[in-house]
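Homework-ish question, so no full write-ups if that breaks the rules, but can someone show me the predicted structure for this set?
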Amino acid sequence: MKTDSPVRRLPIRYQRLHNGLEVLVVQDHSSPVVSVQVWYRVGSRYDPPGLTGISHFLEHLMFKGTQKYKPEECSLIIQRMGGMNNAFTFEDATVYVSEIPAFGVDTVLEMEADRLRNLMIRDFEQEKKVVMEERRRSVDNDPFGLLYEHLRAVTFLIHPYKHPIIGWMADLERMKAEDVRQHYARYYRPDNTFIVLAGDIDLREAIKKVNPYFGKLKSGRQPDKKPPRALEEPPVYGPREVVVEKPGVTPILAYAYPIPAFKSKEVGTLEVLSRILSSGESSRLYRSLVYEKQMATEASGDAKMYQEAGLFYFFLFPRPEVAISDLKKALSEDISRLQKYPVEPWELEKAKNQVIAEWVFGQDGCLYQGFFVGMCHLMDHYRRAHTLVEEVQKVTAEDVLRVAQTYLSESRRTTGIFQPKPGEKTGEVQEAE
Amino acid sequence: MKDREYGVFSNGLHYALAHKGNLPISVVGMTLQAGSYEDPPGKEGTSNVLMQVIDKGVEGLGAYEVARALDGLGARLSTATSPFSLSITLQVITPRLSPALDLFSRLLRQPALADEEVERAKQMIQAEMVQARQEPSEVLQDVYREVLYAGHPLHRPVEGYFSTLSRVSGEDVRSFHHTYFLPENGILVGVSNLPLSEFHAQLESAFGGWKGERLPGQASGIVRELPPLPGLSSPRAIVVNMDVNQAFVLMGNYSLRRKDDWYSPARVLNYIYGGGGFASRLFQSIRNEKGYAYAVWSVLNPGRDLPGSFSVGLETKTEQFPDALHLLLQIQKEIQQRGVKPRELKDAISYYRGSLARRMQTYGQLASLLSEKVFYDLPDAFWKKEIEEIQQLRGKDVKSAAERLFSPSAYALALVIKAEEPPEISGLQSDSIRFFSSVYDFYEFLQGADAKL
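A: Not a homework solution, just the prediction itself:
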């Protein structure tokens, strides 16, 4: 890497405790703040059949306290120190995050170690209603959320990535407190966990702090129960399509393609391809379909790479007078151009510059530094944090052409369409004046 | 070496700059002291359209070319519209600051504001409006603004209305830009890892020569006549019927100005009452003890030229709404009569002291603080001084703030709920409740009310 490059190597330190718990430290003394992140290697892909959403539900219940702490008491203690805490569940992991003044690290670690072992499942039915309401708002009543859920469910035939993180409503309804207890016992173990400490702390100090609380925990109460094996998707034999009809305002057209997992060497190329095709107002799709052909009002997309597979997708919002079939035709032309001719040098450079800038912006604040390193470690190895940007830098126009030909073929495509049905009159008519 | 600098360029543009050295990042923001309040009558939404299209072309470059240039630099550009200010912010890695700043400056000074882009933006905004009217929490915001500011220009949404937006032309947008995008109306803030002198020189080169493009005979600066806020001496409510499975509630009153001497105790009071999340009384009693609502909170928004607002929000089961409303008013009365508990005050002070470092951790956060300093004419490092002030607060200061901030017998209430007819609300006379049987009827009324102002 050139010395004048804005890309700095993140100072990461690693240590594994005797019970299997891993500790990662990202040192940044620019502000007296530390982000404490506890990463459990259990996300929605570990949800047992019929109990989808259980990892996410457990995340909610983790705030209900232990014998020592009352519900939400830990959050209160963190807040008193001037900090914040939260959590999120995704396909491959559940992460508990705090951001606190450096003096509060011990307190947070003590509380996190306590709830790793001593969680009390409280307010189960009340919290279930909260999760069901969250599902109604973010999926059932949101055209975009609903379409994305269907798109994934059809793109993945057997892999648990087909299930929504929040779970199917019927599964949530039937879930029992005992199911959650078993899930907790099975996956919340030191040897299935790593801690990221990012910010105003160094490794020696961090280990000194983590050890008294986490080092004494024995690994695995049920060592015979290993996480499920990776499920390989069968070959894709042809295009798929899913149509969602529901009251709404604007139709949406989406395309999704299965792509390799984060560990793959294609990550950099897929990232560049996604940026060239559908990221931002200078992307090919935006230029062609929004500016030039004026067939859509919005075009955006992403390449999401998980631990065992990935999804390359983009969404388009057609103009009211444009038929979905015409938009599909125009899209096919843009995609096939990408599969026939190498991208222009300036497009390649633009995509790389975007990645580098986003990487630098992502270091602004200990929270995001921790997320980045944690994500690399979860999906592959923390050292990948040192090489990812370089991988992107090395991508050539030929790489992009090859990847577009390999992964964006018509036969591998899942098409999703949100078709609005008329709903309540809400004042959209112009003659309201 | 000093790490902050404030001043005024010779063209009247105020600036506030800071050095922050840990990453090669530069953030530059421009705030214009004009907003949707200045929208021409009957063309509400003009300023918001302007902010949607300000980056859609500049002399010699079309919308796509600008997007390509910014993306090529890896730069991020964001805009915001409020009743009294318009802002545009650039974030870029410092090695690319110079070309990014050149483009940023041109966009601010000579945006293309082409008719076709204005039309495109209007269509987008109208589509979003239609979508928002399906969302109870979005509708609630408009209902609350209407009940709180009934009869005052502040009642209107910054994006205007479907019909007024239809009337906004490219010429209106360009005229708004000519009228208000003047250096003497601007506040420039910047945070960078560059040495302050070098950063200053770059910004002065980009903006120091900016003269603005005044309309013939136009005076400099904004002459803004602000009518006083409408009186609120008894409770009043607007209820909108919508097909929702719970009650969406916002209630509140006017609050204070940012420079008022009771801002710090009011801030602490808000934290203890409902702004402090898990720590707040509302959360503990309404959610935890009674289980009336999953979400309950309060927000203190100070104003500059007029008092701001103090608002309480909750989402509750429809049948539990009366009890929840009664309880949150009861808590206000209790605090007014007995003050807050010593432990609550101690915890709030501890929170503010501890959160200071988190609040100024990133480049963007520091830029926001600088902007706040200049916009509200606050002292340098006000963020530290205010924490020192908070640490000196006593229970009586917070009680006194409660007497001024809370008004349990005179408030504005917005309610989005499934109801075929006007509900009875304890403490409100039936003639102080305005009921709309559909979202459509409410928005039709809103536009009509605006036409009369």
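Now go work out the reasoning yourself. Hint: DSSP finds 15 helices and eleven strands in chain A.
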